[in-house]
Design brief:
The chain is α/β, with parallel strands linked by helices. 42% of the residues lie in helices and 20% in strands. The longest helix has 19 residues. The N and C termini lie far apart (48 Å).
């Protein structure tokens, strides 16, 4: 059974399409995160969207448990904390974003990123493709092990060039090849570096996450 956690606004399609794209079966749970607001018109439109979600998904699979949770929209840290609690209170969820106000969608993204190891998958509604997609999200919780910093800096200097070899990194970082190789492995484990292999050589380069971290070092 899968637990889906999705933000919800006034459009049911932005919720149902990512869930359908991911795949749902009997016994699954869908938790809809709704901004807690007292404006009557907004409440009516949200209630309609909830019914539409229930009708659409119920027409595809039976025995689907639909739960709504109102999230107080006070300030960004509070909303993020509230969503965080919901994400970790049960089985690892599939988090669906792209529906609802940014007041809750953005905090939900931050919470999902912080709980990357607990989140089963991340889905979103694509305005371009008009459907559900599973994006590759950089790991913002990664870290650069202190002992690897010289090798990471050497790789950062080659960020806009072709992949480089461990021997080249070792030379630039003034480390032995064996030490540079261990440091590269540690950076690979953190998701900051990726290895490449072809018939001629083995090379390494920064991952999208690594490139984000590398830019923090530019002015240091």
């Amino acid at each position: 059974m899968t637990r889906f956690v999705s933000t919800l606004g006034f459009s049911a399609n932005r919720v149902t399409r990512p869930i359908i794209a991911r795949g749902t079966t009997a016994g699954d749970t869908v938790v809809l995160l709704i901004p807690d607001q007292s404006e009557p018109t907004a409440e009516e439109r949200t209630a309609d969207a909830v019914r539409n979600v229930e009708d659409t998904l119920g027409g595809i699979v039976r025995d689907l448990d639909l739960v709504t949770k109102k999230v107080p929209i006070d300030d960004f840290p509070t909303v993020t904390d509230q969503v965080s609690k919901i994400l970790i209170e049960g089985d690892p969820p599939v988090v669906c974003l792209g529906a609802g106000a940014t007041d809750i969608t953005f905090p939900a993204f931050v919470a999902a990123s912080a709980h990357r190891e607990h989140v089963q998958d991340l889905m979103m509604f694509s305005d371009i493709k008009r459907g559900g997609v599973s994006p590759s999200i950089p790991d913002l919780t990664a870290r650069i092990p202190g002992r690897t910093m010289d090798v990471f800096r050497a790789l950062t200097e080659r960020m806009d060039g072709p992949p480089t070899t461990v021997s080249e990194l070792a030379n630039e970082a003034d480390r032995s090849v064996s030490t540079a190789s261990r440091h590269v492995d540690a950076l690979v484990d953190e998701g900051l570096v990726q290895k490449h292999r072809n018939e001629q050589s083995k090379t390494v380069s920064l991952t999208p996450t690594g490139r984000l971290f590398a830019r923090n070092l530019v002015d240091e």
